[in-house]
Amino acid sequence: MILKSIQVLYDKNQKNFDDKTRNEIGLFAGIIGIIINFILFLIKIFVGLFSNSIAITADAFHSLSDSASSIVTIIGFKIGSKPADEEHPFGHGRMEYISALIVAFMILIVGFEFVKSSLEKIFVPEPVTFKAIHFLLLLLSIAFNIVLSIFNRTAGNKINSTALKAIAADNMGDVLTTSVVVFSFLISRFLPFHIDGYVGILVALAIIYAGFTFIKETISPLLGESPDPNLVKSIEEGILSYKPISGVHDLIIHNYGPGRCMASIHAEIPSDINIMKIHEVIDKAEKELSEMLNIYLVIHMDPICIETEEVLSAKNELDRIIENNPLVKSYHDFRIVGEGEIKNLIFDLVINPNELNKTINESDLKSSISRSIKEYHPQYNCVITIDYIFS
Fold first, then answer.
1. Tell me, what's the pLDDT at 285?
2. Same-domain status, 209 and 74
3. Are residues 326 and 271 in the same domain?
4. How is residue 74 annotated by DSSP?
5. What does pLDDT average to over the chain?
6. For site-directed labelling of 278, which of 87, 160, 261, 300 has its Cα 20 to 30 A away?
């Protein structure tokens, strides 16, 4: 498993991974994290106890919490790699996000505990004993953390793991906090007053900040964050490359964990095309794009008719109207329904809700567009649906 994981991590041509491979890489990264962080804990606790430094001791227990974080990450990968079942039809991939969230709270607890310990050290200061061997051991721990951060970042980016990316950022935070500790440890030899407690506070606050940052990063995908713009662009451009698809809209992407995205989208097709022919095109697009983008893609067919002179005239008028309206990004599902003198002009407007303000709302926008069309085409009753886009 170790040799295979190393080979996969540094294979530039391999980008998509099955659950088994992701689990093996996650397990390998977790084991490496446990071993190295426990070694760092032993080094720092040895230096902290013999030098009587609360800052170094705080940093030691931060490393110990990182070992526990790696254990949680391994558990997260194990559960996250379980296949879909009756209760979880889209698998258990979000467990990786939950494990990252647990790691973040563990980091927070360590930070708050050492704020308390450092405050006690400030009010009841004790001298710090400096020795060259202790200083060298701390420098060695910094080198360990740099290597570990690079390794976890490489693994996290390779398999798109939020948990490993969080741990990599935490490792780099360890580099900074340990560097501050080492610097304070060095200058404590030459200062007439004790700064150990104050440096301990700085280390603890850095740990707390890292914890809150990880919480924010891991809660976002659990709540349902906006999809990656590059993925959105790839899906839309990919579908439009299949002829005779002329437009796409209503893209929805659900994230069920790294490598477990489900996307649905509406594709506009000519209304007069053979149904079996276009079904073959849509089916091909779904299969090829799903494999290429590592998602599960479902395409809904929207037949449109723009061949008649009446439809083209009404469409051109709507183009002119929305061109001067900065709120409207685009429109789709345009059609004319009905017989006789009075007909329904039906279409969906795409807007960014963040750009709506107190002077205009959805109802006002619909009324404004309807009135503008009525001025030139009084025979049409507009039936407008508002779609949102958050970009």
1. 92
2. yes
3. no
4. H
5. 79
6. 261
Angle, CA 166 vertex, CA 102 and CA 91 arms, to 5°: 65
**Tokens representing residue 37 in the block:** 């962080």
Are residues 92 and 40 part of one domain? yes
In a shared domain, residues 218 and 244: no
Whether the predicted pLDDT of 239 surpasses 80: yes
Q: Are 153 and 299 members of one domain? A: no
Contact 350, 331 (CB under 8 A): yes
Regarding whether 335 and 313 lie in a shared domain, the answer is: yes
- The segment with the largest mean pLDDT, out of 167-176, 234-243, 329-338, 345-354, is 234-243
113 pLDDT exceeds 70?
yes
CB atoms within 10 A of CB 230: 8
Show the CA angle centred on residue 377, arms to residues 373 and 378, nearest 5°: 100
User: Cis bond leading into 303, ω under 30°?
Assistant: no
Q: What is the greatest pairwise CA distance in the chain?
A: 97
What one-character-per-residue DSSP string does 341-380 give?
S-EEEEEEEEE-GGG-BTTB-HHHHHHHHHHHHHHH-TTE
7-29, pLDDT tens digit by residue?
555 555 555 556 667 777 778 88
What CATH number corresponds to the domain at position 214?
Answer: 1.20.1510.10
Query: What are 280's two structure tokens?
Result: 């073959």
Q: Report residue 61 as tokens.
A: 């227990």
The model's pTM is 0.60
Residues 270 and 205 in one domain: no
Which of 266, 288, 304 corresponds to the end of one domain?
Answer: 304
The DSSP line for 264-329 is EEEEEEETTS-HHHHHHHHHHHHHHHHHHHTEEEEEEEEEE---SHHHHHHHHHHHHHHHT-TTEE
Range of the domain at 321: 309-388
